[in-house]
Amino acid sequence: MKDNLLNFTVLIEQDEDGMYVAKVPDIPGCYTQGNTITQAMERIEEAIHACIDTGEDLTEIVPMKFIGLQQIEIKVKA
C-alpha cells in the first residue's frame, strides 16, 4: 500500500481559559485542544487521523488554499 502525504491548514485560537484550540477547516468536526501550542498540534495530528481513518476515499478531501488572516476594527455605538 502506498503512503500519501496530505497537507492541511490548522487554525489555532486561544480560548478564555487559556487552552489552545486547533481546528482543520477542510475536515468538518476535526478539532482538539491542548495546554500548549505544541500539545494542540500533536493532538490535531491524532484528530486528523481519527477523522480520515473512517475508510472514506481520501481523494474526496480537497484542501482549501490558505490565503491569510485579516483583522478589522469597527466603531459601534455604545
UniProtKB/TrEMBL annotation:
Ranges of residues in domain HicB-like antitoxin of toxin-antitoxin system? 8-63
Any Pfam family = HicB_lk_antitox
Tree of life domain = Archaea
Query: Would you tell me the protein name for this molecule?
Result: Type II toxin-antitoxin system HicB family antitoxin
Question: Which source organism?
Answer: Methanomicrobium antiquum
